[in-house]
Amino acid sequence: MAKKLQTSGNNSTEPWYKDKNGSFDGVREKIGIIATEINSEIGDWNAKVAGSRLMLNKKIPIRNNNIYSLSSNSPTFSNHFENNIIVYSLGTPIGDFVGSGTLGVDGGSPTKDDYNGKPDLHTGFYALDLVDLFNIMVIPRDNSLNDADYQDLWANASAYCKDHRALLIIEPPDIWKTKDQVLDPNTGIRALRRGVVRDHAAVYFPKLLVPINRLKTKVNPGGAIAGIMARTDADVGVWKAPAGLDADIQGGNFDLDILLTDLENGDLNQQGVNCIRSFPSGIITWGARTMDGADDFGSQWKYIPIRRLALMIEESLYRGTQWVVFQPNDEPLWAKIRLNVGAFMMQLFRKGAFQGSTPDKAFFVKCDGETTTQADRDLGIVNIIVGFAPLKPAEFVIITIRQMQGDL
After folding, report:
1. pTM for the full model?
2. Are 163 and 128 contained in the same domain?
3. pLDDT of res. 333
4. What are the CA-CA distances from residue 169 to residues 16, 24, 86, 267, 282 (Å)?
């Protein structure tokens, strides 16, 4: 319905730019009249005057004519508002945004067979078949697994590590309380070695004490040792022994179940048991031998860094020479192999991974007609031989003092 626009004064004859008093504010006055007329109508717009401008806003439709106030007499709001999903607690199966479902089942504790697993199902150890690469294995122990079954895992686990060029960290048995128990022929390190691939495994002793709920609880050291190895690899390289004053356990308030003396450490170290010691600077690993590192064995894989360096080189060369497959197996190919593998070994030499002042004293790469015979070529085989001079860790420091007599 259209309405006749009037000024605020009845029968005003003033021009549109003047108000009823003759002032030059007639524009604002007349816009205000328009706004009043728009707001008095039942429509979809609200009008507002801003200076000499008329502003129109779209009205928001009201779905419910009831007005609610936040008071004790207010109606139930649940009939007019949706519940937010944030109000649901974990485990609540049904709600406006959650349908009914089946609650999860924790299942039973793992057994020795669960740890060993099956190759065709990729369970247990064999779940790592689906992983591209790993080089350290630690097996956490479930509380329900007895010590005998837990120790039975080491043989199969070390064999699996051998196939995957990895190192197994073996946890100390619960029965090990003193040095004599570790060296006992029936329950000590000799019994623990049985069935284990010794050059792909290492054992650490004693256990750690960790505060849990303000109580000191004994835990196996394998996880902490793996962390030290990873940190050493990142800081220096696998050729550095994960032991010494810079190989301390970080990230928690740890203590040791047993405190070992220097003499006890020396006796255990000679049998290939790596000791964990308490020093003023923290909890330190004070040993870097594989289980093949007893002095009686004379193994070339006596030390962890040498064993891991060889495994790293072997794995790297295996992956880095895949391009060789189906290439013509003759001298041009062998020359390319020597060039590529030699460049890789030279890089390690420059980082300090080998002994020797010059590359020819530190490593060699051989791939020629001597390593790959005609019979090998007929079978589609190319043989690469790589040798290196490893850096052996300094386990003992011998100090000799002489007294000089007379004037110097």
Report:
1. 0.72
2. yes
3. 95
4. 97, 95, 45, 20, 21
